[in-house]
Design a protein that fits this description.
This is F5/8 type C domain-containing protein. One of its GO terms (molecular function) is metalloendopeptidase activity. The protein is mainly β. It folds into three domains: 1-27 and 216-486, Collagenase (Catalytic Domain); 54-209, Sandwich (Jelly Rolls); 495-648, Jelly Rolls. It is built from six helices and 33 strands. The strands form nine sheets. Strands 23, 26, 27, 28, 29, 30 and 33 form a seven-stranded antiparallel sheet that branches. A six-stranded mixed sheet has the order 1-21-22-20-18-19, covered by helices on one side. The radius of gyration is 36 Å and the shape is rod-shaped. 44% of the residues are buried. Bound molecules: zinc ion. Zinc ion binds at residues 17, 19, 388, 392, 398.
Length: 649
């Protein structure tokens, strides 16, 4: 049974993998920088205000309250009804209304005493919106008014002056001003609106805020995230969604500090991270969401229904979209997790092509539960980089981070992209895979060298999603079969199909005129049956059984090899029967250099097989594998090696 894997279920730590393929080209000349556009794309809060409403912690007095007399106020219109958190005016709790007046130019006011100095910069007035007495939206909203502040309640300084205020067409009317430190705040109307023939100051709700407006957080790569706080809700620019988890933590801390400073009683707990034995985690960002608003929690970093939704950033060129879509089409044709372009999904990946200073791309590992990004450097819009980042987004970490990596590579650093991950949450599937698309290639920052190889064995690191990458995804997403490769899984990762194949001879009219139905490529075409258009491989016919014939595979990189499957000829074209041409005496040999060979399987007097023959042996490092037959089986009076298919694992 093979070991390893490539990812962990439920990665609580979704560290950004700045996955550079360091040897990929990097331009160093300056490029035009991106336009600094910050579009709020994610609402962090819904109905629950993120910011504390200062009005609710103040002592509030009013100039008057409507009612049958000053001593018999209408309780449905008392000021507490404008501070009750209900922004609608409804019968029973309309809001606040001043006493009626026959004169338009009447002074009516609401006064707030915070008890101590507070920072204030926004007043939100919610207009009356009931239709109880034929009233319409905005009835009673003052025509002329001033918002004033005072240190002592006696001397007032205006911070907002409104004249000829039109009837509100939206319920919320927000008035911002430069932040002031004040103990008292007053909203004083001097010209009132007519309601059913009399003049009133009426509001459904009044709220006061110290609104930071926008917090900016700068990531280490210079990109900035902005939190916009508006109407008591927070929204973020898209760039909050990128960056290292630790950097996001910095953003949380900054926001938390702000909330703490304003003394909100609504600040939630910050213990957003918890993990169960099943490896299910609450995402770190819950710390942020719990600051008064966001309830969303990630309990599984895999994509539901094995489907990743994606979109392109608006600035991605048509050419780059076409290229990336092509790499996705290739991925979808080979991997169990599918990518679907769909901007309507909240949890989705946005592809962005932007200049990255020292990497070809980056992505967080797994699904964040929020819109998340894959960023690709303009010089790296390649199948390797795009599929590498896609691998991260579905949940794969770097191959060289495997706990067993020291057995296979040397010279690996211990930074966040290379550190060995041995925690239980990182489940490992499949053999160590030098040609994984998730393996860094040789380069300046990382120089993995396959152990046991000599000379230049080429750079590890696949150029596209490899068979064991796909197997890892297959396992990660819980496709039936349990941990560890199955026969079916292993067949997906047949190494012979990506190997260079050479043979001792090929049957045909002559050595230079081989029979193309029997050439070596027919034995690695995925067809395990021999048929008249693609039989498999056959050596040249010999008159003696004691003839040596061989077939040799060379892999792009050194691999761990532990099994060879030989599929016998099973056609009946010329009266042949199953097993004709299957070698009688043979050995299976491996080599790291193509010169020194080690025999791992030896068979003599092998009986005629009725089906596939599987030969398993202790896993060995191998750049080369060959099957050497020294005694052949007769086929129609001559001696051949004939096999429908050869597979190496
Ligand atoms: Zn990476």
């Amino acid at each position: 049974m093979k070991v390893f894997s490539r990812l962990g279920l439920g990665l609580g730590l979704m560290g950004l993998m700045a996955c550079g393929a360091p040897s990929d080209p990097q331009e160093t000349d300056s490029r035009q920088s991106e336009a600094a556009v910050a579009l709020p794309t994610s609402r962090l809060c819904s109905s629950v205000p993120c910011l504390p409403n200062l009005a609710r912690a103040a002592t509030v007095t009013v100039s008057s309250t409507t009612g049958s007399s000053p001593t018999q106020p209408d309780t449905r219109w008392a000021i507490d009804k404008a501070l009750d958190g209900n922004r609608e005016s409804v019968d029973g709790a309309f809001g606040w209304s001043s006493m009626s007046s026959g004169a338009e130019s009447t002074s009516q006011w609401i006064r707030f005493d915070f008890g101590t100095q507070r920072s204030v910069n926004e007043v939100q007035l919610y207009a009356r919106n009931d239709a109880t007495f034929g009233t319409v939206l905005g009835d009673g909203f003052p025509r002329d008014f001033v918002i004033e502040v005072s240190a002592d309640g006696a001397t007032w300084t205006p911070v907002v002056t409104q004249v000829n205020q039109p009837t509100p067409t939206e319920q919320l009317q927000s008035f911002r001003f430069s932040t002031v430190q004040t103990r008292f705040l007053r909203i004083r109307a001097t010209r009132l609106d007519s309601v059913s023939g009399s003049y009133y100051f009426q509001l459904a709700e009044v709220e006061l805020y110290d609104n930071p407006g926008q917090l900016t957080y700068t990531f280490s790569d210079g990109e900035q995230a902005e939190i916009t706080l508006d109407n008591g809700d927070a929204s973020v620019s898209e760039d909050i969604l990128v960056g290292e988890a630790t950097e996001l933590d910095g953003l949380f801390v900054e926001y938390q500090a702000y909330i703490n400073q304003v003394g909100s009683a609504q600040v939630g707990s910050t213990d957003g991270v918890s993990a169960s034995s099943a490896g299910i985690n609450t995402h770190q960002r819950c710390k942020f969401w719990q600051v008064g608003c966001w309830k969303r929690k990630i309990i599984d970093s895999r994509w539901p229904n094995n489907t990743v939704y994606y979109e392109f950033h608006r600035e991605v060129s048509d050419a780059n979209r076409q290229a990336i879509r092509g790499f996705i089409t290739d991925w979808n044709s080979r991997a169990p997790v599918q990518w679907v372009e769909d901007t309507s999904r909240f949890s989705r990946v946005m592809f962005k092509v932007k200049n990255l200073s020292n990497a070809c791309g980056n992505s967080i590992v797994g699904r964040s539960g929020l819109p998340q990004k894959i960023r690709i450097d303009p010089d790296c819009v390649t199948q390797r980089t795009v599929q590498h980042e896609m691998g991260h987004a579905v949940g794969l970490i770097h191959e060289q981070q495997r706990c067993d990596r020291d057995t296979y590579v040397t010279g690996i650093g211990n930074d966040s992209n290379n550190r060995k991950e041995c925690a239980a949450k990182y489940t490992t599937f499949g053999p160590y895979d030098y040609s994984s698309v998730m393996h860094y290639r040789s380069g300046t920052a990382v120089s993995p060298q396959p152990l046991g190889s000599v000379g230049t064995s080429g750079s590890p690191g696949g150029l596209l999603l490899g068979c064991y990458d796909r197997l890892g995804i297959h396992k990660l997403y819980g496709v039936a079969g349990g941990p560890g490769p199955t026969t079916t899984d292993a067949a997906v990762c047949n190494l012979s199909r990506n190997a260079a194949v050479t043979v001792s001879s090929t049957t045909g009219y002559s050595a230079t005129q081989p029979d193309t139905r029997w050439t070596s490529n027919r034995a690695v075409d995925g067809l395990r049956d021999s048929n008249s258009t693609s039989y498999g491989w056959s050596s040249m016919g010999a008159s003696s059984a004691a003839t040596t014939q061989w077939i040799r595979f060379e892999f792009p990189f050194e691999r761990r090899v532990s099994r060879v499957d030989l599929y016998p000829r099973n056609d009946a074209t010329y009266g042949t029967v199953v097993g004709d041409g299957f070698p009688v005496n043979f050995s299976i040999e491996v080599s790291t250099d193509g010169a020194n060979w080690t025999s791992v399987v030896t068979r003599t007097n092998h009986p005629r097989p009725g089906g596939v023959q599987t030969y398993e042996f202790t896993a060995r490092p191998a750049r080369f594998v060959r099957v050497v037959a020294t005694n052949l089986r007769a086929v129609g009076g001559m001696y051949y090696v004939q096999l429908a298919e050869l597979e190496v694992f």
